[in-house]
Automatic annotation (TrEMBL):
Residues 1-101 form the FAD-binding FR-type domain. Keywords: 2Fe-2S, FAD, Flavoprotein, Iron, Iron-sulfur, Metal-binding, Oxidoreductase. This is Flavodoxin reductase. PROSITE patterns: FAD_FR. InterPro entries: FAD-bd_FR_type, FNR_nucleotide-bd, MRET, OxRdtase_FAD/NAD-bd, Riboflavin_synthase-like_b-brl. The keyword Chaperone does not apply. The keyword Flavoprotein applies. PANTHER family: NADH OXIDOREDUCTASE HCR. The lineage of its organism: Bacteria, Pseudomonadati, Pseudomonadota, Alphaproteobacteria, Hyphomicrobiales. GO terms for molecular function: 2 iron, 2 sulfur cluster binding; metal ion binding; oxidoreductase activity. Its cofactor is FAD.
Length: 221
C-alpha cells in the first residue's frame, strides 16, 4: 500500500543528518523501532525505495524520520537533502524487527542509532529508561546524532566512542572483543544492535563468543 505525505519541515541535526517531519495519515500506526520503505514523489525517484525508521513517538501528531544524507553519490538520501516543506514522500507498509524486549544495551554504528531513537524516546517518556545503556561508535565527534537529547535522558547510561577524531576528549576505541571485555562486563542482558551489516555480524559473533545468549540479541533481520 502506498501513502503520499507532505513534508512539513526539515530540521538540522548534524552536518549531514536532518529530521524530516511529515503529515501523519489517519490510522497510520507503528511501534517504536519499526520502519517503512520511502520514495520521493518526483519523476525518476518514485520507484527508488529506501528503508527508514520512524523516530517520533508512536502517538505523535506528525511523523518523523531522522536521515543521514550521503553526498558522495547521486542516491535517495542525497536527493532528500534538496527537499523542503511542501514536497511529498511515498510511504508504504510498516515493518521491522527491532522491538524492545526489556532492559539492556543498545549498540549502534553511526546512523544505525536511528532505530533506537523512538524506542529510547518512548521509554524516557513513560519513565522506563533507567537501567538501559546506549553505546554508539562514530567516526568523529561532529557525527554524533542527538547527543544532547540522549545525554539528558535521566537514567540512560551513554557511552560514545570514536574511530577517527584524535582531537576529541571522547573515548577513542573500536568496538571489538577487547572493547566488549572492558566496557560490557554483563553479558546476561538484552542486546540491541544496528549499524553496517558487517559490524552487526561481527558483534553478534563477538557477543556469542563472549558468552551472551543469542536469544537475547536483537537486530534488524
Amino acid at each position: 500500500m502506498q501513502t503520499f505525505v507532505r513534508i512539513l519541515d526539515t530540521v538540522p541535526v548534524t552536518h549531514n543528518v536532518r529530521h524530516y517531519r511529515l503529515e501523519r495519515p489517519a490510522n497510520y500506526r507503528f511501534s517504536p523501532g519499526q520502519a517503512t520503505e520511502v520514495s520521493i514523489d518526483r519523476d525518476g525517484w518514485r520507484d527508488e525505495k529506501r528503508p527508514f525508521t520512524f523516530t517520533c513517538l508512536p502517538d505523535a501528531d506528525e511523523l518523523e524520520f531522522t536521515i543521514k544524507s550521503y553526498f558522495d553519490h547521486s542516491g535517495v538520501t542525497n536527493e532528500l537533502w534538496s527537499l523542503g516543506a511542501g514536497d511529498r514522500l511515498i510511504l508504504r507498509d510498516v515493518w521491522g524487527t527491532i522491538q524492545y524486549k526489556g532492559k539492556g544495551t543498545f549498540i549502534a554504528g553511526g546512523a544505525g542509532v536511528t532505530p533506537f531513537i523512538a524506542i529510547l524516546r518512548h521509554l524516557n517518556a513513560s519513565g522506563k529508561i533507567a537501567g538501559n545503556r546506549l553505546i554508539v561508535s562514530n567516526r568523529t565527534e561532529k557525527d554524533i546524532i542527538l547527543r544532547e537529547e540522549f545525554e539528558a535522558m535521566e537514567g540512560l547510561d551513554v557511552l560514545w566512542t570514536l574511530t577517527d577524531d584524535p582531537g576529541s576528549g571522547l573515548l577513542q576505541e573500536r568496538i571489538d572483543a577487547g572493547f566488549l571485555e572492558r566496557h560490557v562486563p554483563d553479558l546476561a542482558q538484552n542486546f540491541y544492535l544496528c549499524g553496517p551489516d558487517a559490524m552487526v555480524g561481527d558483534l553478534r559473533g563477538l557477543l556469542e563468543a563472549a558468552g551472551a545468549d543469542v536469544a537475547n540479541v536483537t537486530w534488524e533481520r
